[in-house]
């Protein structure tokens, strides 16, 4: 049994140092790995990322993160990633990593992902160049996630995104903004890759759980949805 702690949308900033200290220390008894599914900062400021690094850099378990749209807000995503990596946090950007946990390989593929909408109500690759760019970003990031998942040679496979792959975990948000909260393209690549669990954030007012059309469990780990510092998922290794 592998214990995966996860949370998204912690939105840390200046003055919040110490907010997670006790909960991070407690991970040594509670989890084998911690996954952070984006929106780690409020405005994407490097100074905010330094708070994130301070909170999670000395975690007693490996920490794997992706960025969210808030972390991209100041065009400082490279600097933010550098701050996190320097603190020992692994940052995924359309790639994957495999951790060894008590002899079991746990693969995580991650991307911020993007919007675009869900079946029947998706962005069209047509018209203004801005609309085509919107559609193209969603396609590109989903494809990168798919490639990263394909390359994971691990017993457990986890898809980590900021944007949602399914609609069910958005329930509670206004339907009008669903196309800005996720994309079915993420679920398509997840379903193509024998993923055990998909985790996302971004939808603060969404719902805790759903399932891809192919049956992969999806969980919205946004901090306001969890209502606690992180949730620990227990994943069983598939018998071979
Ligand atoms: Fe957020
Ligand atoms: Fe977000």
Commentary on this structure:
The protein has helices spanning 21-25, 27-30, 46-56, 77-86, 129-151, 184-191, 223-226, and strands at 2-7, 33-37, 63-66, 90-91, 95-101, 104-111, 117-118, 121-122, 156-161, 197-200, 209-211, 217-220, 231-235. It is an alpha/beta fold and 240 residues long. The strands form three sheets. Strands 5-6-9-10-12-11 form a six-stranded mixed β-sheet. The chain has a five-stranded mixed β-sheet with strand order 4-3-2-1-13, covered by helices on one side. Strands 7-8 form a two-stranded antiparallel ribbon. Helix 3 (46-56) packs parallel to helix 4 (77-86). The radius of gyration is 17 Å and the shape is globular. Residues 39, 68-70, 162, 202 line the site of one fe (ii) ion.
What binds here, in terms of ligands, is: fe (ii) ion
The pLDDT mean sits at 96
Strand content: 15-25%
Low-pLDDT regions: none
Which structural class matches the secondary elements? alpha/beta
Major beta sheet, strand line-up: 5-6-9-10-12-11
Cα-to-Cα separation, first versus last residue: 15 Å
The helical percent reads 25-40%
Order of helical and strand elements = EHHEHEHEEEEEHEHEEEHE
């Amino acid at each position: 049994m592998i214990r995966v702690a996860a949370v998204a949308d912690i939105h840390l900033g200046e003055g919040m140092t110490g907010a997670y200290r006790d909960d991070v220390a407690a991970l040594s008894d509670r989890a084998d790995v911690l996954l952070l599914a984006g929106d780690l900062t409020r405005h994407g400021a490097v100074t905010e990322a330094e708070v994130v690094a301070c909170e999670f850099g000395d975690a007693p378990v490996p920490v794997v993160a992706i960025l969210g749209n808030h972390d991209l807000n100041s065009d400082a995503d490279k600097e933010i990633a550098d701050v996190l990596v320097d603190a020992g946090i692994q940052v995924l950007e359309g790639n994957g990593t495999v951790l060894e946990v008590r002899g079991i390989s746990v693969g995580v593929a991650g991307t911020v992902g993007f919007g675009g909408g869900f079946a029947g109500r998706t962005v069209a690759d047509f018209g203004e160049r801005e609309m085509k760019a919107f559609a193209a970003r969603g396609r590109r990031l989903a494809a990168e996630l798919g490639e990263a998942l394909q390359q994971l040679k691990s017993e457990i496979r986890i898809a980590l995104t900021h944007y949602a792959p399914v609609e069910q975990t958005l329930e509670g948000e206004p339907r009008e903004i669903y196309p800005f909260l996720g994309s079915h393209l993420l679920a398509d690549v997840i379903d193509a890759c024998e993923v055990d669990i998909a985790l996302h954030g971004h939808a603060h007012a969404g719902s805790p759980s759903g399932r891809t059309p192919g049956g992969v469990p999806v969980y919205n780990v946004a901090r306001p949805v969890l209502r606690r510092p992180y949730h620990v998922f227990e994943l069983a290794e598939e018998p071979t």
